[in-house]
């Protein structure tokens, strides 16, 4: 397989609208793309298969037969990345909330020696668009509590727009993780504890107005419980 050293992992379920926006943009970058799809029924799969025919050497997909969860989809992608010897892994949403054009800035910081890049909504220059008020408040409170509880000063613990070096991922992939969104801040904490050099970069998180959010009260509660179980190093 003719490949780059950088892999973008995109977990999806019924996000064809977002995929049509971001995949053509990603294909213009010097990266490989892996979509992990959990049985989408909105036409995503025919689009993905068709795009594979056009970009066979730098675009791959894994189709799973059921919705096995957010964390599971990412770890499926992580295993693919490590098995194929990618050096840098990028995590991003499939709904268009994360801007592919920020990736070049992220990667320039990897070249400058950083091991973990976090796209942050909560540092100077970061912002959130189209978030319901309750989501903004709950997200801010959660991240404030996480900063108080953790031993490092990451501002956006729940960000899903992340770049991580494979050397760090290898150290933390077999740790204990929550099944839901809580694994995002667990992963950051494990990376920091393993010695990763961290850089936060401001992003504009453009929440999709016409897309039903996967985040709900149950997921928020599970993430909060996961946070409570994490101890400072």
From TrEMBL:
GO terms for molecular function: dolichyl-phosphate beta-D-mannosyltransferase activity. Pfam families: Glycos_transf_2 (PF00535). Residues 8-170 form the Glycosyltransferase 2-like domain. GO terms for cellular component: membrane. InterPro entries: DPM1-like, Glyco_trans_2-like, Nucleotide-diphossugar_trans. Transmembrane segments: none annotated. Keywords: Glycosyltransferase, Transferase. The keyword Cell membrane does not apply. GO terms for biological process: glycolipid biosynthetic process. Belongs to the glycosyltransferase 2 family. PANTHER family: DOLICHOL-PHOSPHATE MANNOSYLTRANSFERASE SUBUNIT 1. This is Glycosyltransferase 2-like domain-containing protein. It comes from Candidatus Berkelbacteria bacterium CG08_land_8_20_14_0_20_39_8.
């Amino acid at each position: 397989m003719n490949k780059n050293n950088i892999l973008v992992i995109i977990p999806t379920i019924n996000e064809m609208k977002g995929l049509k926006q971001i995949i053509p943009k990603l294909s213009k970058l010097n990266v490989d793309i892996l979509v992990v799809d959990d049985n989408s029924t909105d036409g995503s799969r025919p689009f993905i298969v068709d795009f594979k025919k056009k970009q066979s050497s730098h675009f791959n997909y894994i189709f799973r037969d059921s919705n096995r969860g957010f964390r599971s989809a990412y770890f499926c992608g992580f295993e693919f990345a490590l098995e194929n010897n990618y050096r840098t892994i990028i995590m991003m949403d499939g709904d268009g909330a994360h801007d592919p054009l920020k990736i070049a800035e992220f990667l320039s910081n990897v070249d400058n020696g950083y091991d973990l890049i976090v796209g942050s909504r909560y540092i100077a220059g970061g912002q959130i668009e189209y978030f319901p008020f309750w989501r903004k408040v709950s997200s801010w409170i959660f991240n404030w509590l996480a900063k108080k509880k953790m031993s490092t000063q990451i501002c956006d613990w729940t960000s899903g727009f992340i770049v991580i070096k494979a050397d760090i991922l290898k150290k933390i992939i077999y740790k204990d993780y929550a099944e839901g969104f809580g694994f995002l801040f667990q992963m950051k904490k494990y990376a920091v504890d393993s010695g990763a050099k961290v850089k936060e970069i401001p992003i504009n998180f453009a929440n999709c107005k016409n897309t039903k959010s996967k985040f709900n009260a149950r997921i928020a509660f599970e993430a909060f419980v996961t946070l409570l179980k994490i101890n400072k190093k």
